[in-house]
Amino acid sequence: MGVGRRPRRLGGRAGAGILGGALGLAAAAQAAETAPGLHAHNAVGVAVLIGLTIFATILSLLYLRERARWARREHTLNAELADLRGAHDRADLLLGSEPQIVVTWDARGEPLIEGDVGITAEGHRPGSVRRVLAFGAWLVPADAAALDAAVETLRGRGERFRRTVHTLQGRTVEAQGQAVGGQALLRLRELTGERRELVALRATLEETRHGLDALSGLLDTIPQPVWRRGRDGRLTWANAAYAAAAEAGDAARAVREGAELLERTAREEAERRRSRGGAGPLRVSAVVAGARRTLDVTEVATEGGTVGIAVDVSELESVRADLQRQMDANVRTLDQLPTAVAMFDARQRLIFHNAAYRHLWDLDPAFLEGKPLDGEILDTLRNARKLPEQADFRSWKSGVLAAYRAAEAQENWWHLPDGRTLRVLADPNPQGGLTYLFEDVSERVHLESRYNVLMQVQSETLDTLREPVAVFGTDGRLKFANRAFSQVWRIGPEMVEVQPHIDQVIAVCRTLSPAEEPWAQIREAVTGLVDARRGLACRLALADGTMLDCAAEPLPDGATLLTHIDVTASVNVERALTDKNEALERTTRLRDEFVHHVSYELRSPLTNIIGFTELLGDETVGALNPRQREYADHIMRSSAALLVIINDILDLASIDAGSMELTRERVDVQATIAAAVRGIGDRLAEADIALVLDVPPDIGSFVADGKRIRQILFNLLSNAVGFSAPGQQVRVCTRKDGESLVLEVIDQGRGMPPEVMARVFERFESHTLGTRHRGVGLGLSIVRSFVELHGGRIDIASSPGAGTRVTCTFPVGDGQARLAAAE
Fold first, then answer.
1. CA-to-CA distance for 397 and 414, rounded, in angstroms?
2. What is the mean pLDDT of the chain?
3. I need a labelling partner for 152 at 20 to 30 A (CA). Which of 128, 440, 441, 785 fits?
4. Per-residue pLDDT for 372 more than 60?
C-alpha cells in the first residue's frame, strides 16, 4: 500500500509517533482487506483519521514540554528584573535620603541632573531642572559667580573643589565637585542638623574674634579706667583711661612699669571682698590724674586672674546729698497727710512711713524703725491675718513686689479680712524704690449678695483659666464649660447652651482622643451610682500629640468637676531628663576612666621626681647649700603629697571598678594605731595639738588589711589635726563591743554644720570651715570605702563649735564571712 512506502527517517519521539501512525494505518488497511463486506476506501479513511489523532497528541505533548521550559525561563528573568528594580530603588532612596542634586557631565558635555530640585526654589517659584545650573537664579550673586568658576575649572582641568554657598532664601548648600571615571560630577547638598550647626559655629567664631577686637577698641575709648591682672596680681592690660588716670603716659608703659591707680589698702580690701564672695562695687578714694576723686571699683575674678573697672562717682555723691535734702522736706510734708504713706528704697527697704500708716496696720514702731524689707512687712501682716486672703500667697506677693519694676503707677484693691477695702496705689520713684498710698474706701463699696458674687466670681474665674474645666450636674448633663474646654475639645457654644449629656460630650471628644478606657472611667465618675463618690485621675492622649491629665472631683452639691491640665511639656521634659541622665552616667564613666588612666601616667614620672630628689637630699651627687637643701625638702614634701593624692584616686578607681582586694592578716590594734600616730607626729608637733590615746592594753587583734587600717587612721587623724586649733586635743579611742571593734577619732575643732555633714563623704568635697586645712576632698570618701570593704560601717557626729566624732566599726569574728554578707 501507499502508506507503507513513506520515508522512515524521522527524528526523536516525533518520528516514532509518525511511524506509529503509519503502522496504525497499515493495520487498519489490512483489517479492511480481510474483513468481508467493507469497502477499501472506508478502511483507508479510518486509518488516516487514527494517524492524524496520534500525530496531534504527540504535537500537544511537545508543546506542553516547551511551554513549561519557557515558563521557567520567564520566572528567572522576572526575578532578575525584580532585583534590578530593587537596586534602582535603593539607589534612588540613597540619592533622595537628603535634599541634594547630582549633576554629571559625560564625554559629550551633556549634563545629567538627578535628585531633589526643591533646593533651587525661590519664594513662590518652585524648583526645576532648568534652574539647577543657572546658579545666579537661586544663589546669592557672589556665591553664584564663585560656583560657576569652580565648575568651569572642574570640567576643563578636573580640579576638585568643596565650598559652602547660600541661597536667596537663606538656606546653606554644600557644593562638591570632582572627576569620577572620566566624567565631571557636581553634588549640591543642603546642609541641615550638625553640618549646618558646624558652619554656623565657624561663622560665629569669626564674628566673635571681630567682636573681641571691637570690644578691645571700645574699652580703649571709654573714659572709665579698665584693667586686667594676672594670677600673681600684676597688671597685664589697661586701657588708655587707666594710663591717663595713673599718669603713666600710655597703656603699654603702665603695664610695663606696673603703675597702680588704687592705693595698697584699697587693693587689699578689694581682694578680701573677692575672697569672701562679696558682691557689688567697692567705694574708695583715689588720686585720678592728680585730683582726689571718689571711685566705685568693681573687680571680678576670672580664670586667668581678675578684671576691674573704676567709675568716678564724685559728682553723683554731690547730687545724692542734694536729693537727700529734698527728700527730707517731702517726708515732713507727707507725715502730715491723713492717707497712709510708706516709702521704700531701691533695695525694697522701708525708709519712711507716716503716722497714718502705722495706725492702719498697727505695727510695732521698733519693727518699722528697723527699716524692714517690703517682703518682710507683707509676711508680718499675713501672719497677723491683716492682708487679703490668698490661695497662693507667694504668687500674690510676687505680683505686689513687681511694682518695683513697673514704669507707671499701679492701682489695686485689697479686701481685708476685717471687712475693710483699701485702694492701694504703688507709684515707682524716679530714683528707684516705691511709694505706697493706702486709702480706706470701705464706705464707698456697695456689697451685693454674697452668694451671687461668689457664683459670678467662680464662673468668671473658671472661664478665664487656661486649663479646661467643665461641671456636670447630678443628671449627667453639662452645666458649665469654660472657653478652654470648648477650644480643646472643639465644642461649639450652641452645644454648651443646650446642656448635652455626658454621652454626647464623650462622642464629640473621642474624635480627638479615641482611647476608650479613659472615657469609660470618666463616664462612670459622672453618672455612676456608688455609695461613696471618689475622685478620678487619668491621662488622655490627643491625636495631635497633646497629653492631658484629667481629674474628676465630686462636688458637695452632687455635681462633678472635670478638669484637664496640659502636661505635654512635662512629659517631654521627663523624656529629656531621662536622656540627660543617661548622658551624665556615660560622662561619669568616661571621667572615672580618664582619672584612672591619667593617675597611672602621673605616678611614674612622680616616682622619678621623688627618687632624684632623695638623691639630691642625700648629697650623693654633690654637696648642697642651705637654700638648695630647703628647695629639695619642699620638692620632696610636695611630691609626697601629690603621690598620696594620686594613690587615693587610684584606690577610688579600683574600688569603683570592683578590682580592690584586701590583704587579710592578723592586725595588732595597738601597733597599727602607733604606726598611724608616727605618720602624723610632725603635724601634731607643728600644730601644737595634744594626742590622747584611749586604747585598752588587752584590745588584742582582728582579721583585716593592716595597710588599709593604717590608711584609715592616718586620714582621720589628718582631718582631726587640720580642723583643730593650737592647744586642743585629739582623742583616739578603741573598744570591743560584742562581735565588733569600735575605733573613734574625736577632735575639739570647729565642727560642721548639717549641710556640710550631708555631703562630707562625697568625693572632691572640700570644706575649709575657716581653717587653714586644705585638701582635695578624697580622705573621708576613701575611709568610708575601706571601712565598707571590711564589712564595717562609719558614723560621724558633729555640730558647729562642738568638734567632730568619727566612729568606725569593724567585725572581729569571721572576717571573710562577714565581708561576704556585707557585700
1. 13
2. 79
3. 128
4. yes
Pairing outcome for strands 161-166 and 410-415 = unpaired
Q: pLDDT tens digit string along 267-325?
A: 888 888 888 776 678 888 888 888 888 888 888 888 888 888 888 888 887 788 787 78
3-class secondary-structure state, position 794: strand
More confident residue, 334 or 407: 407
Extents of the domains making up the chain:
89-192, 223-318, 337-446, 465-632+646-659, 661-811
- The CATH number corresponding to 89-192 among 3.40.50.620, 3.90.640.20, 3.30.450.310, 3.90.226.10 equals 3.30.450.310
Residue carrying the nine cell digits 541661597: 167
Residue 794: closest CA among 716, 724, 738: 716
Q: pLDDT digits over 587-627, tens only? A: 777 766 766 666 666 667 777 777 777 777 777 767 777 88
Q: How many CB atoms lie within 10 A of CB 55?
A: 15
What cell numbers appear for 71 in the block?
A: 515558563
Cα gap 579→586, rounded to integer Å:
11
The yes-or-no answer to whether 223-318 and 661-811 have a common fold is: no
CATH topology of domain 465-632+646-659: Beta-Lactamase (3.30.450)
| CATH number of the domain located at residue range(s) 661-811 in this protein | 3.30.565.10
Which alpha helices (DSSP H) does 363-472 contain, by range?
Answer: 365-369, 374-383, 393-401, 450-464
* Residues contacting 257, CB < 8 A, separation 6+: 248
Cell numbers standing for residue 76: 528567572
Give the bridge partners for 291, in sequence order: 288
Sign for the pseudo-dihedral over CA of 135, 137, 139, 142: positive
How distant, in Å, are the alpha carbons of 404, 471, 526, 554, 790 from that of 551? 38, 12, 11, 10, 53
Helix, strand, coil percent values for the chain (each to nearest 5) = 50, 20, 30
